[in-house]
Amino acid sequence: MSDTIEKIKCLIIGSGPAGYTAAIYAARANMNPVLYQGTQPGGQLTTTNEVENFPGYVDGVTGPEMMIQLQEQSKRFGTDVRDGWVTKVDFSGPIHKVWVNETKEIHCETVIISTGASAKYLGLPSEQHYLQMGGGVSACAVCDGFFYRNQEVVIVGAGDSACEEAHYLSKLCKKVTMLVRSENFRASKIMAERVRKTENIEILLNTETVEVIGDGQVVTSVKVLDKTTKEEKTIPATGFFVAIGHKPNTDIFKEYIDLDETGYIKNIPGTSKTNVAGVFVGGDAADHVYRQAITAAGTGCMAALDAERYLASLE
Known about the structure:
The protein is an alpha/beta fold. The chain has seven helices and 17 strands. The strands form four sheets. Strands 1, 2, 3, 4, 5, 6 and 17 form a seven-stranded mixed β-sheet that branches. It has a five-stranded parallel β-sheet with strand order 8-15-9-10-11. A three-stranded antiparallel β-sheet has the order 12-13-14. α6 (189-196) links the parallel β10 and β11. The radius of gyration is 21 Å and the shape is elongated. The two termini are 23 Å apart. The relative contact order is 0.18.
């Protein structure tokens, strides 16, 4: 074995709420965790301006500030937090092999995957501008809907999640305009009927987003195209929600870890265990239902406890 190979007890891949919570628990259990932050240190929360639904923050907190606090808390107990991202794994044998930045090889007794999932966006320059400004573009109605109470918003999407988020927004907002790019919903009949029967949801079929309009800081309206008539119109809105799905960041694991049809990691129900002994998962890499910071933190805790018990069983 080469001298350049590093041996560690617990490797955590990813640095969102799940990864840092796992690190806090693992460090306090003397597992000497090493955490690689990945390509987006702090995860999706770093794109969230205000977090008001995480317990303990009476006055709320910004997403980036919260992730810095979690990082510092994990380091306080001895977590080795590192820059870099995992580019390759080999879970075929009893030693879990991981490569960082395509060069550094690490052999791990346990691995906790907390790579999260990335929200899909339309890719419009105007959409990305207001997303980065924190000025009215969001991919999570449950997270951000509260900030648009009694206002008018637009949501893009046609599946069950889009219908669920539109219905959620309808209970907070004055009006919700739902843009469906094709002639029909992809959602189940019951979910589609629910939004159709909601008085303050207007559904525009065969409609595409052309531009998110604002004053440079915040969203003020959305320009859309009716694909049937080829007419453009502008819809007043202070919020633009995108509900066209998420992509779990799990591609590098697919050769060894069981994934569902959309790429989410399958865990043994009630645990953080994967199909590979000694490899665990926390957060949105396995969760396509809740996708909240608090649920991610909870599964990060589970992953660290499961990893600790696994190590104890080897002694």
